[in-house]
Design goal:
The protein has about 100 residues and is mainly alpha-helical. It has four helices and two strands, in the order βααβαα. The protein has a two-stranded antiparallel sheet. α3 packs across α4. The radius of gyration is 17 Å and the shape is elongated.
């Protein structure tokens, strides 16, 4: 895990306001990837907290199933990557056109 803050299952559930059963489901769907083999050993970093909060919002607000949430999060990540690449290419093109 790259981020320094690490929380256990109980703290994770409190921070993201999600029952253990939902956390197990989002791990099974690959939405978050904790360290540890079993739920009572799992440790989560701050990135996982952020993703879980986004997942919970999609699940709650759009009434999406967890597999749909996983797909939506993947698509949102891809969209952000494309936007970042587009910004970079526009900057390069702008420099090229100024010369």
């Amino acid at each position: 895990m790259s981020n320094t803050l690490v929380v256990d299952m109980q703290e994770f559930c409190q921070v993201v306001d999600m029952p253990v059963a939902y956390v197990i489901e989002i791990v099974e769907h690959g939405i978050v990837e904790p360290q540890g083999q079993k739920p009572d050993e799992w440790l989560f970093d701050t990135y996982s907290l952020s993703i879980a909060k986004r997942a919970a919002k999609l699940h709650r607000d759009l009434e999406m199933e967890w597999d749909g949430v996983a797909l939506a999060l993947n698509l949102l990540d891809e969209l952000e990557q494309v936007r970042a690449e587009n910004r970079m290419l526009k900057q390069r093109l702008g420099r090229f056109l100024q010369d």
